[in-house]
């Protein structure tokens, strides 16, 4: 176990030394990538020769996975990157985010009659885009619009302009839509089978889950067989949600389950609509419509939810030609305008409890982010303001987008040395855990719009640099929209082209604790499973009832042993970051993006 400098920052005593230690770790990570330390950390098995295993197959469990962690871990992401024998030869995916979708299921099974018996783990997986793969095989190119796939230079300008902005709109076939970034629990009032919003609401579709991406299209799949069922679009929730863009990381109210997201419609002046779909009624409300000069269409992967507000950030990743460039380039990454420090982030704080719409407008320096972490509120006794805090993983430029190109990840054609060998770019691609503060004046009426204060700068109150924070951040889900202390993310200490450890970051002390994994073992997103209240851990290790500590639980991560070319489901103690157990596969599981843990009903009731 490796620990950063500890102590309570509120005392201020050793803070300069702590920050100096962080600088040393940051520079060590940068120098590791400059030296090429990643050359003996193989990741190829997570991208090549991957199989669909419909199973279920029994995995070998070593160590101990707690019985209270029983449930299902769903994972999604790409699972195939090349297609042989197409019309134009072998097709190669050029960006990690554009691999063909593959969904996975790890079923952690406890003995219902013997709580002391070892758990069993079963695995199954299913590809989600066979129809699209068949189309590529026939045509030799991707017919859809991608994230970063280099376009076919043989496509004429007429074909580019006339191509549909969102390729998935061509067909309702589930297998044709490469939607595979996040997994969403049942969405109120939505079903791909019905073709329109269900009148019976949320309860009618609880046997299916949804795959989402940064578009209005979502894919429904069977939670048992993983079979794709069909596609649905946000406009089925509300007719005004007709724009092509949205974010993969929709938000949920932790108490009601209400579904929040945004929809962006292109035009001379783009229109952003922030919306909520209610679990109790199945109805969708537009909370705010943002349509104003100076607010550009942008690539936005996630947004924020606090107890009283939905917070939309339009970052510096503006889409060229007011979005039309996406249809020209046939991908988002090449359609993003060159980075410019004058392109400030614009933040909109939207009332989600009343009907006041946008109640705050802020700006922050130019940069980029993929992932929000959490948002919470505090009351300012002196001013009467409600202070909203937003935490996220940020970068000072857009360059990190290219770090996930396949040639860079797989060390092909000198691309890795060229990318990470540029020291300035290397530094810019190191993650920063950032917290911004937004003061919102207290309203005298929750149902009447206030006079909107002039746009103000957001205040940065915290920044922790890599490797003490990394990508794909998660928290204890019981702390969603609450003030919290711990973030879990995937760090790169300069040893891998992807990630080389899981790090626990203490936001109070700035302390970092790393999982001490063997060389070549690359982790995936670490999903936090809280310890149920009936199994709270005492000081002497005994269990009883009570309120668990924030870090009392386990982390589930799918890890690739790149040297042995096999994967395993890792179970870590979230408090100590030490391994408790693992479920071993006899094969490699694809590097995915995100997952969803589903607890059995009995555990859900008592936790």
Furnish the topology, listing elements before pairings:
Layout: E1 2-3, H1 15-35, E2 57-58, E3 60-63, E4 71-80, E5 82-86, E6 89-92, E7 100-109, E8 120-127, H2 130-139, H3 157-162, E9 182-184, E10 208-212, E11 217-222, E12 228-233, E13 251-252, E14 259-265, E15 271-277, E16 284-290, E17 304-305, E18 309-314, H4 325-329, H5 332-335, E19 345-351, E20 358-364, E21 368-379, E22 386-395, H6 406-409, H7 415-420, H8 423-428, E23 432-440, E24 456-457, E25 459-465, E26 471-474, E27 486-491, E28 501-506, E29 512-514, E30 521-522, E31 527-530, E32 536-537, E33 543-544, E34 553-561, E35 566-573, E36 579-584, E37 594-598, H9 601-606
Structure description:
By secondary structure, the protein is mainly β. The protein has 9 helices and 37 strands. The strands form 9 sheets. Strands 3, 30, 31, 34, 35 and 36 form a 6-stranded antiparallel sheet that branches. The protein has a 5-stranded antiparallel sheet with strand order 1-29-28-27-26, with no helix packed on it. Strands 2-8-7-4-37 form a 5-stranded antiparallel sheet, with helices on one face.
